[in-house]
Write a structure and sequence with these properties.
Elements: H1 2-34, H2 38-70
Helix pairs in contact: 1-2
GO biological process, one term: embryo development ending in seed dormancy
Region (Disordered): 1-76
Biased composition (Basic and acidic residues): 1-10, 28-76
């Protein structure tokens, strides 16, 4: 049963990370569209990439915590 719980938590983590990445990308695109300075646009793009990497890292850390729940022993 804990393996199923871990899979569900992994799916939830992936969905949450995907939502956060989409929201971050949309926010950065809106900010970038209103900017006129090319240097600020480049900085916004770098922030977007940094945020994406941070979200992916958080997702991997969260999933790693679920890994211990997947391993179970059969007693009998």
């Amino acid at each position: 049963m804990s393996a199923i719980k871990a899979k569900v938590e992994d799916a939830a983590s992936s969905a949450k990370a995907g939502t956060e990445k989409a929201m971050a990308a949309a926010g950065e695109k809106a900010e970038k569209a209103t900017m006129r300075d090319p240097m600020k646009k480049r900085a916004a793009e770098e922030r977007k990439e940094d945020r994406k990497l941070e979200i992916e890292s958080d997702e991997r850390v969260e999933k790693a915590g679920h890994g211990s729940e997947k391993k179970h022993t059969v007693e009998g």
